[in-house]
Amino acid sequence: MFFPANQNDVISVATLNRMARDLLESGLPPMWIGGEISNLTLAASGHGYFSLKDSNAQIRCVMFRNKLSQLDFRLSEGMQVELRGTVTLYEARGDYQISVDTLRAAGLGRLYEAFARLKAKLEAEGLFDNQHKQPLPASPRRVGIVTSPAAAALRDVVTTLRRRMPGIEVILYPCQVQGSTAPAQIVSAIHAANRRAEVDVLIVCRGGGSIEDLWAFNDEAVARAIFASKLPVVSGVGHETDFTIADFVADRRAPTPTAAAELVSPSREALQQGLDLTRRQLERALARLLTDKSQQLDYLGRRLQHPGERLRQQQERLTQYRQRLQQRLHTQLQQRQWRLDSLRLRLAQGKPALPRLQQALQQRSQQLHNAVHRQLAQQQLVLGKLEATLLAMNPEAVLARGYAIVQNEAGQVIHSPAQLRDGEAIQLQLAEGRAHARVEQERGTQCQLPF
């Protein structure tokens, strides 16, 4: 190892760093060190750069690609790890660092564990539910920004708003965005914006940084203030890979402050293009309408007539109707007259000779009278014969001569004594009424009828 010969010898910075590196590497053997990963950067070359810290100190670390590729997990911010490496010095910048050979996970880091615990708690309470998300206004007139006046994020947001829509008014609600007092100031700024109600939408933002730098936006009070906000809130904290509790609670999450400004503001160019397109469509529609109306006007103009001409045409048509009506009436009168003359002629030709018909009628009447008397006399003779025959055959006439009709109880006429039984009741039909009797049998077939 090279050392200056005396105190007055001058050496270069590179020589000094080389000497320091040799002392560190030779004086401190490889060792295991535990801590929390912070400020993690995974370079495009495949190397990993980060800080290993505890509550009191931190040291830069480098893990080269050939070592990093052997890990079976992916490094992340806030991860608690244990690593084995050599303490060395990067001569080009004079950075004191650890060259990591082996690394293993030792559990979640303190900050990451607190982040996960709060996230689970608020998610269980429903603070992340989409049903609570408010829609962003399409064309806000005023945009409120909750951030530090010295933050680069403020310049990014204002520049983006001026570029996209210069007419939007910007109102700043200043607060700290880093440090122990930042959460209370962020909450106060959000409450002030809601109390004044002078903006249409609120942007809560800051630039990128380590998990410690962004920790104010993982505060529970900040999350609840965003959730309770009556104004729509857009969170634009850190870079695309950074996620905070504020991102989950906000109505919209933007990956960067610039993206948050783009979310809340309509693009002037897009609006102008849409306006130009609408204007062209309106012009084409108006041109078509004018063309259609012009053609319709020409058509109606050809159909339009002077009132005097219209009256003359109507007068001519009326004269024609009157002439046709008169002609039709004249024709009908002639037809009716011809028919009347024809009927008169037929009536004159068919007129009867009344004296001759009257004489014939009298003759026919006398003949009918004589025929009726002859027919009546003949019918009276026939009737007399029938009456005599009827009288001769009338049973009552027979009964009047002393005969009787014998009937049994069933009303049947008895023709022979054999039809009678001893003690049987019978009826006798006489000329002047009926009588009842009972049969008494003596000898033979003779019977006595007691009355």
TrEMBL record:
Keyword tRNA-binding: no
Domain of life of the source: Bacteria
Predominant cellular place of this UniProt entry's protein: cytoplasm
Parts forming coiled coils: 268-328
InterPro entries xref list: Exonuc_VII_L, Exonuc_VII_lsu_C, OB-fold_nuc-bd_dom
Key words, A-Z: Coiled coil, Cytoplasm, Exonuclease, Hydrolase, Nuclease
Keyword hit for Nuclease: yes
Enzyme class, first EC level, given as a word: hydrolase
EC numbers, comma separated: 3.1.11.6
Domain Exonuclease VII large subunit C-terminal: 127-437
Pfam family, one: tRNA_anti_2
Record-level Gene Ontology MF annotations: exodeoxyribonuclease VII activity
Catalytic reaction list: Exonucleolytic cleavage in either 5'- to 3'- or 3'- to 5'-direction to yield nucleoside 5'-phosphates
Domain OB-fold nucleic acid binding span(s) in chain numbering: 11-103
Compartmental location: Cytoplasm
Family: Belongs to the XseA family.
Subunit-level organization: Heterooligomer composed of large and small subunits.
NCBIfam families per the UniProt record, alphabetical: xseA
Function: Bidirectionally degrades single-stranded DNA into large acid-insoluble oligonucleotides, which are then degraded further into small acid-soluble oligonucleotides.
Name used for this protein in its record: Exodeoxyribonuclease 7 large subunit
Native source species: Vogesella amnigena
